[in-house]
């Protein structure tokens, strides 16, 4: 991972925020789905970013289920719902991700994510249930059971590789990007073994409009992963 000079961003609730932010331990599942690009675009706010089509009329939904076992912002759980996207006017190879929802289960990471990165975090009830051979993740959103995902606890198939990517957001209305250098899990999950159950409320309704529940195209799992978040920066306008 990159060696970058430390920068003090400021303070949130009396805690000093510095970058790069090193995350020592994450358990994470990443699920990728092909969805209609029109339905995906309807969930992308503002006008600075656009859905990156993977084929005409098709976009890629990303669901990341993250159990931050150790993190400077807390030992919290998080569910990322978003799409592959790029800044409007950017070249085709400038693809990152835009998360349109990011529920977490602790207050500090919610406030810090909102104020520092512009991430759409809200405090909700999330529970990871580990068994010897499976993991179950439950999301209760605004008091309603919204989403349950159950999948095999796939063992690692080799060392985790580091993937650098851009995460896009709006910070106080300004388009921003945060570079992430994250290890990706090498536990390969058979998509047919991923069980997705939708409940009630806005999250479930949005996923239904995207065509879920359906098996993902790709699903991976990893435990004890590491990551680095670099200093967020404004997105330069297209030249």
Summary, kept brief:
The chain has 239 residues and is mainly beta. The chain is built from three helices and 17 strands.
List keywords for this structure.
Acetoacetate decarboxylase-like; 239 residues; globular; seven-stranded mixed β-barrel; mainly beta; four-stranded antiparallel beta sheet
Can you give the mean pLDDT?
A: 96
CATH architectural type:
Beta Barrel
Total DSSP helices:
3
Rg for CA atoms: 17 Å
* SSE arrangement, N to C: EEEHEEEEHEEEEEEEEHEE
User: Kindly, what is the distance between the CA atoms of the first and last residues, rounded to a whole number of angstroms?
Assistant: 30 Å
Question: What is the CATH C-level name?
Answer: Mainly Beta
Tell me the number of strands: 17
- Return the CATH topology: Acetoacetate decarboxylase-like
**SS-derived structural category:** mainly beta
Helix fraction bin: 10-25%
Q: What is the domain tally?
A: 1
The 3D shape can be described as: globular
- CATH superfamily, called what? Acetoacetate decarboxylase-like
Across the major sheet, the strand order is 3-5-6-7-12-13-16
Low-confidence stretches: none
Q: Biggest sheet, open or closed, and with what strands and sense?
A: 7 strands, mixed, barrel
């Amino acid at each position: 991972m990159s060696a970058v000079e430390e920068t003090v961003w400021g303070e949130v609730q009396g805690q000093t925020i510095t970058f790069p932010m090193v995350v020592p331990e994450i358990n994470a599942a990443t699920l990728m789905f092909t969805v209609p690009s029109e339905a995906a675009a309807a969930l992308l706010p503002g006008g600075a970013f656009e859905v990156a089509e993977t084929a005409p009329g098709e976009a890629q939904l990303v669901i990341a289920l993250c159990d931050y076992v150790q993190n400077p912002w807390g030992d919290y759980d998080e569910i990322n719902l978003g799409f592959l996207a790029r800044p409007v006017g950017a070249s085709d190879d400038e693809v990152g991700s835009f998360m349109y929802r990011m529920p977490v289960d602790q207050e500090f990471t919610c406030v810090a994510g909102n104020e520092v990165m512009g991430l759409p975090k809200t405090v909700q009830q999330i529970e990871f249930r580990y068994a010897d051979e499976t993991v179950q993740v439950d999301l209760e959103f605004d008091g309603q059971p919204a989403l349950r995902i159950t999948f095999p606890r796939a063992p690692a198939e080799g060392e985790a590789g580091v993937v650098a990517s851009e995460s896009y957001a709006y910070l106080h209305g300004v388009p921003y990007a945060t570079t992430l250098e994250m290890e990706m899990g090498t536990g390969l999950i058979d998509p047919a073994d991923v069980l997705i159950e939708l409940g009630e409320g806005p999250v479930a309704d949005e996923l239904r409009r995207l065509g879920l529940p359906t098996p993902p195209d790709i699903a991976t799992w990893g435990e004890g992963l590491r990551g680095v978040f670099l200093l967020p920066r404004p997105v330069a306008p297209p030249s």
